[in-house]
Amino acid sequence: MSTTHDHGHDELEPRDTAGSDLALRQGDDAVDKFENPGFGPHRPRRSDVEPEANKRAERQVVALFTISILGTIGFVAAYFALPPGETIASMRVSNLALGLGLAFALLGIGLAAVHWAKSLMNDHEKAEDRHAQRSSDQTRAEAVAALKEGAQDSAIGRRGVLKGALVSSLALFPLTIALPLIGEVGEDWNVSKFKRTMWARNKKLTIDPTGRPIKASDVTIGSVVHVIPEGLHETEAPLDEKAKAVVLLVRLDPRDIKSEQGEGWSYDGIVAFSKICTHVGCPVALYEQHTHHLLCPCHQSTFDVADGAKVVFGPAKRPLPQLPITVDDEGYLVAQSDFHEPIGPSFWERLR
Is the pTM value of this prediction over 0.70? Predict the structure, then answer.
């Protein structure tokens, strides 16, 4: 039977759906109509047919494991010989040396494992039918036999140098993780230094980097000022102590303030928050005036200044700590005290 369109188009043959309907009715049985293509022909590698190529591949794998070993040794040596120090230059050199050591330690193991698998291990494709999760005892015994066969295929038992390089690189690599966690011998483990900064009662807020004291009347609504404690640049405090004290000062319309972390911690709409993000410690410096949001450029954590700097977006889990402020008799902005909680990311004694 044929049909004709009203607009004079050519006749079209109706679609034969009998075959598809039969396949639907048969369900899984319809799969039997398709032949299993099987595996393609196996192509031997040069290392399979040429003994010299096989030995060359083994030497290459050993060399890659040796690179990993040297990388780990270099990391350990750099950790003790090149401490970060107090200057940006010394920190840069220390981080570069540690990073290169860790990179070669990881890269050597990874490349060696891939090259070993591609050039020395058995590359024949195998397929197994799916079975119940709990295999029979016979199947489990066959699995153990297959593992032994795989170990024989890798020839690890006959390659002493290769086995030694593998064990050495894997045994040494954990040092690159353990050393930074354990720390140097005699390191100060007093975590109370994370809980305080250079801010103190009646310490004036000064503009960064000039150090000029700032009056409340100098801050207009919508403006943002980066501030530091008075006399910060004149002190001999370590660089990390100075970095912890940086603060962001924002002035809002007092009617826009929804909440603050402590009663009376702001002054006439002026609020001050730590500039150190509570995620991983990046500097929070991008302010959106219309929404009163502070943005961390590293991982996009967003804080609402009008609502106690609570997190509104991103991976940070805690609000930015608020610095309690007021004004002195001359109208200068001063701190009421230090921060009431540790600034920056969480640590082992600061889980929230």
Answer: no
Beta strands 270-274 and 286-288, pairing class: unpaired
List the domain boundaries for the chain.
Answer: 46-124+140-182, 194-335
| Across 109-136, average pLDDT | 81
Whole-angstrom Cα distance, residue 320 to residue 168? Answer: 46
State the amino acid at position 263 in one-letter form.
Answer: E
**Cα dist. 229→166, 210, 283, 309, 333 in Å?**
54, 11, 17, 21, 11
CA–CA separation, 179 vs 184, rounded Å?
Answer: 8
Query: Domain 194-335, CATH 2.102.10.10 — does that match?
Result: yes
Tokens standing for residue 96: 């570069």
Task: For 70, list phi and psi in degrees, rounded to 5.
Answer: -65, -35
Which tokens go with 314?
């991103």
Q: Which residues contact 41 (CB under 8 A, 6 or more apart)?
A: none
Sheet containing 302-304: order of strands: 286-288, 293-295, 302-304, 310-313
Report pLDDT for 293. Answer: 93
Distance CA 101, CA 103 (A): 5
Length of the chain: 352
Place of tokens 């010989």: 81
Residue 69: partners with Cβ closer than 8 Å, 6 or more residues away? 105, 108, 165, 168, 169, 172
The encoded tokens of residue 215 equal 């009056």
Q: Which residue has the higher pLDDT, 32 or 278?
A: 278
Average confidence (pLDDT) over 48-72: 92
| Model confidence pLDDT, tens digit, residues 175-207 | 887 777 665 444 555 556 667 888 999 999 999
CB 232 within 8 Å of CB 245 = yes
